[in-house]
């Protein structure tokens, strides 16, 4: 009876002509019911994707969804037939002026470009170029430095979370808010811009062109981003098969970005027996894992939808781009929308806007140059340890004595909004409370503090290795207890230890 009364309370708020956001926040903090797509609607309201005026929802959603589709058309391409016809027309005009067959170049090489373990380039005649090899027969990456001079300017290595992050200035990130903010490049199925062979082209722009004005440089840079996105979204939530399943609403008109990414295992020649008679292997080498199964034409997996959303976001936000770990943040958003009957058909577009809104609040956690700012990840981790020292100085002293720094565990906790610490249903429940707070960063600190205090007895009795394993692999627990503890910490009701 109490549950039905709670459903009726949500319905009464959501059916008003103008939503009372303060009242909705209080309801959502204690958890949103799954039935009837209520959580999807509440998250859209909490992230300000939907206006408070319910009468404007239909027009607003239609506009936003059309705007996202325009981004996809401009960046990914409307369809293979349109892009191919555009490229063919440009090739014919170019052939008349140059007297050479650019169409042959395109057919022989350009349409077959993809990312794989052993890169094969092509020259301006369409012939494949075998990369140079070292003394051991391993291809050298002679073009990597010229193609990505500044791609990893803000990367971060060595973190326990293994997140690579790219930096940028505070003004570099541009959130698309109108139709005029678009890229002018249209990519066909092979990822080649149709502007590469425009009316002014003389076919001098080839894959080995190191000029900064070469469109191939942009192509290879996009492929590097796409390769990282593809690896991340394929392994999203490996403990459940939802993201590997086919979506009920595929976008067949949009070419698959995954077709630009192929996985080729590296093979080494068997060493001559006379040189390895004294070599003894302690254990046999494991066979390489098979590549992910690609669905049949006309079908599209959920992870392919997320791949497109993240690629569009990275292209529209060049100052920030794609950072490893964003796939963990977009996963729960898409899952809530795709499992909602009212939002499943437009889950891709709605997910893009919700992800953009959420990243606007936590983007500073992904920008290295803002680590020491008030909302940066460095300052946030420092606030976590200060809060822990206030509420539980014994546990804080134990961690300090053992040399367990907050970077070893809290970096992943805070930057990924705890999405890797709990199962997906628990993450969604935690996000109900996180998204309903106006002081998002403060509540993240209190929730992380509560996670440590809830394991107080185990930490005080454990050594360095045991406590590191505990904090980096948080044990299963009831997240409602952690939320209640976080509330006590945030309101000052907890007296400390």
UniProtKB/TrEMBL annotation:
SMART domains: TBC (SM00164). GO terms for molecular function: GTPase activator activity. Residues 33-438 form the Rab-GAP TBC domain. Residues 149-169 have a biased composition (Basic and acidic residues). InterPro entries: Rab-GAP-TBC_dom (IPR000195), Rab-GAP_TBC_sf (IPR035969). Pfam families: RabGAP-TBC. Residues 82-95, 193-204 have a biased composition (Low complexity). It comes from Hirondellea gigas. Residues 117-128, 180-192 have a biased composition (Polar residues). Residues 82-103, 117-208 are annotated as: Disordered. The lineage of its organism: Eukaryota, Metazoa, Ecdysozoa, Arthropoda, Crustacea. Keywords: GTPase activation. This is TBC1 domain family member 13-like.
